[in-house]
Amino acid sequence: VELVESGGGLVQAGESLRLSCAASGGIFSIDSMGWVRQAPGEQREFVAVITSGGRSMNYADSVKGRFTISLDNAKNMAYLQMNTLKPEDTAVYFCNAQGRDYSGTYPADFASWGQGTQVTVSA
Predict the structure, then answer these.
(1) Is residue 25 a contact partner of residue 101, using CB atoms and an 8 Å limit?
(2) Separation of alpha carbons 17 and 84, rounded Å
(3) Distance from C-alpha of 29 to C-alpha of 104, rounded to nearest angstrom
(4) pLDDT of 14-29, one tens digit each?
(5) pLDDT tens digits for 45-62?
(6) CB proximity list for 104: less than 8 A, separation 6 or greater
(7) Are 19 and 93 within 8 A, CB to CB?
(8) 3-state DSSP of 33-57
(9) How many distinct helices (H) and strands (E) make up the chain?
(10) How many CB atoms lie within 10 A of CB 35?
């Protein structure tokens, strides 16, 4: 299963961005999709995750109240609406997904990562 992120860019503090993540390639079902980020010289940091059908969402404390994750199961798309961006939100944002695909005779578990999209927030 391939994941492709889009929507990153350069914005000023206080502005908004919406990231998209498209999953494709023999998908049987998606259990969850999420976002992590990695700033220069830092380890990857959990941002948000959502389960299939939007039944459950979790956010890192640093983004609660500012970021909203959503999932369109019909399109196999996840979104991350980022409002009131801060310079410390600057990072490469990676999408991940877990579920089952048609890689074998029967649906099998998969876990995939995207290549990332750069978000830069200037002060």
Answers:
(1) yes
(2) 9
(3) 14
(4) 999 999 999 999 999 9
(5) 999 999 998 889 999 999
(6) none
(7) yes
(8) EEEEEECCCCCCEEEEEEEHHHCCE
(9) 0, 11
(10) 28
Which run of H or E residues covers position 1?
Answer: none
Give the Å distances, CA to CA, from 2 to 10, 80, 115.
25, 18, 10
Pair 15, 85: CB distance under 8 Å:
yes
The pLDDT value given to residue 106: 87
- Return all residues near 57 (Cβ < 8 A) that are at least 6 apart: 48, 49, 50, 51, 69
From its phi and psi, is residue 70 left (phi > 0), alpha (psi between -120 and 50) or beta?
Answer: beta
- How far apart CA 80 and CA 47 sit, in angstroms, is 10
Rounded Cα distance, 43 and 66, in Å: 22
3-state secondary structure (DSSP) of residue 66: coil
The position carrying tokens 């700033």 is 39
